[in-house]
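the two lines:
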Amino acid sequence: MRPRDVFFVGLIVGCGLMLGRGLFRSPPEHIPIETAERPAVVALVDAEFRRSWSERGIEPARRASDLTILRRLNLALVGKVPSLEETRRFEALPDDRRIGEWVEVLLGDRRSADYLAERFARAFVGVEEGPFLQFRRRRFASWLSDAILENRPYSTIVRELIARRGLWTDHPATNFVSVTFDPLVEYPDPERLAARVSRAFLGVRIDCAQCHDHPFQPWTRDDFQGLAAFFGGVRSNLRGITDGAVHYEPTDRRTKSPAAVEPRAPSNPELLPDEGTPRQRLADWIVDPRNPYFSKAVVNRVWALMFGRPLVEPIDDLTEVDDPPGALVILADDFATHGHDLRRLIRAIAATEVFRLDGDDARDHDESWAAFPMTRLRPEQVAGSIHQAASLETIGPESPWLVRLITQGENNEFVKRYGDAGEDEFSPQSGTIPQRLLLMNGELIQKATKEGALTSPGRIARFAPDDARAVELAYLAVLTRRPTPEETAHFAARLEGTQGDARAKRVADLFWTLFNAVEFSWNH
Amino acid sequence: MMNRRGFLTVVGAGWLTPVGRLLAQQAEAEGSRGPARSIILLWLAGGPSQLETFDPHPDTSIAGGTRAIETAVKGIRLAEGFEQTAGEMGSIALVRSMVSKEGDHERGTYMLKTGHRPDPTVDFPSIGAVCCHELPVGAVDIPRHVSILTGQWPSRGGFLGSEFDAFQIGDPVGKPPDVAARVSSERDQRRTLDLDVVDRAFGRHRGASLDALPQRQATTAARAMMTSDQLKAFDVSQEPAAARAEYGDSPFGRGCLAARRLIEAGVRCVEVTLGGWDSHVNNHETHRRLVRALDPAFAALLRDLRRRDLLDHTVVLCCGEFGRTPRINPLGGRDHWPNGFSLAMAGGGIRGGFALGETDPEGLKDPTRPTTVEDVHATILTTLGLNPAKENVDSLTTRPLKLSDGKPIRELIG
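prediction for all of em together
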């Protein structure tokens, strides 16, 4: 046998073993997990929402079921629905602590770090491919993933992004700067950097001020140019990103000729240190706990990751509201005074009453948060969820590399066809007809609803003890809930008396129906 | 600000609704609109060289040996290889003095397709999406915005919403993707009916009726499309062999033929992509190869539209994201050049047999009568009977935004 053949035999055996891991075994024994104390900030947020509901005479929705909350957590932190295996583990945790413990499980999971890194990367460097020679997106994302897994303070991460020197290959944080490299002038573009910094870290769409003073914006064109000037000395050469003398001369509006602009903070000048390179000074100013913008901007973003909708819309423009929501202020204060700890923030949001409310059409208003908002899933979430539901076991870093590779390739193709939401991750989007066609007749769905012996439908058809249990397993795998009695009756009747391939086809059809149901493509 | 429910109700707005169809038929029958009602965009992805296409400067140092041919219009010459297009010159307007500030592929593509510079605070719709949004729905139950042989950056709906994104297909032989169920129709119908069981349970839990749930309308419309007779418009294998031969036996030729079929069926905008023009190396060879596909397809499309009385109602635009440097680099290539490139337009009442602006035969001076991308968009919108200054509101930022910031080019629309 040639080495290649040996390799393939090994691979097939490996896949077989992986698929054979006990799906129908009893749940694993409970090993207690250290959960952090419920931060005091949660009670403050809860009280704030309660106060606003009673002021407006709103009765909030009832509490959601634990499985619904499990689904939300996995979608928010891993980007896909929980596997049947995970659902089993979750249900084996003690009732009163399972949600808190599950948050800890996910926060320590590489899949979660990877997913969150990708979400943040979109805000930091966008989705454009960037200049080919000067930009390494994957390095950047994996650096960010490591930082998130280590729970490096968010302020440290941001400081590196803004001020780091060196090559984009050795110091991946520098890709934040190098992605704006302009081939015409051969250095990173100060104005694109200023726009990015203000949107991603400060929650201010100052870019409009690039051309004109916006009547409703607190920051002016001069503020924008003062911010851009901090990047006026950035150069890109063989040593990577370096700092030279500041040279930023935009065209003056009145004289129509270039005029030098000095670095200047758009607000709170007292927080700007005198020491350091312009980029270091800007970074210090941004991440200072007293900076009124920084913490609010990240809280709004993380809230959106958890709920599918930010507290203030659009996500990167907090200046549109005169009076920021109480919850935003409370969480931002806590974030600023507790070391810019992203995990603490995620834990706190997951522990709030609002996060655990049920979905309810009558209460699903934009601002009251009296029910969990129903939002459309991102294309990656849909693709990841289809893959996950089709596998029963958790797909992650422990899966064989081939499984992960295929998953990745198929997901990318699906995302392209489904329509990538780009950087505007949380803008409201309605469903489209190509999306429905893809979910009904696309290749990914076809594979996920095959009736073969190794697929979820095939295995459930063959191994579930009875019709009702088969229906339940399908519901848990795809929708992370148990069927209602009517649903059980309806679909059990579909399976009644069937055997072998015919039965597997009926289960496959049930999977198809569940994939195409409204609740599968939405967060709720 | 518009609430989320508001967005959900516009599902399918880009598609057929019974009332929309009725209104559209009325509007079109009355002829109350401007002459043009559709756009075909022949998208030359990568940035074609003006010198090897619509603006040759033979016998100069910048030509690098490229020769020119005479056309049906005296005084207007095209680069060699465009023999068939030359015969249609009477219908074609050239703009040889296009200027833009975008020399990067992605930014240039956005600029040309939307008519606006990339701006991180707004996601502008491409002109096809604007066209679908502004013009009557028409009697179609297939997508009204189609992208054939989709390249890297297809036309998008931008702030108008993803329902205005172009529907993407490959080589138009056979059915478009994902319109056929992969199981027997008996199984497909049963599992589709079963959707109501699951959706009803979900709706009951949320206190919502089936009709109030999002996505259900889109599912219904998608199922209507799956059985629509108009799907045939995507399939050029239904054309006689002679017609297919006229367009040239290439994916791009078939794409142009499908574009004509789709326009005939009532589709508003079709983009057909011919990629590979990014000739940093071996510019002349690259262009010779691509022009062999472009020339017969472009010419046949114009002839075919004219024969079917569709040319006056269809604007055809042929361009890429920028042009290429007059100077030839050491690898025999030309690099990106947004300052003096060419585009071709025809149909929809555009004045044919005309060339606007001139570039410097030595490639040093700026072009005369510099023309912006914004102005080209304003011109196309005008031929469609739309006012470029009309404002739409970006639902996300509530900013009112003009369809185009440009002014119609008087010379082209008379």
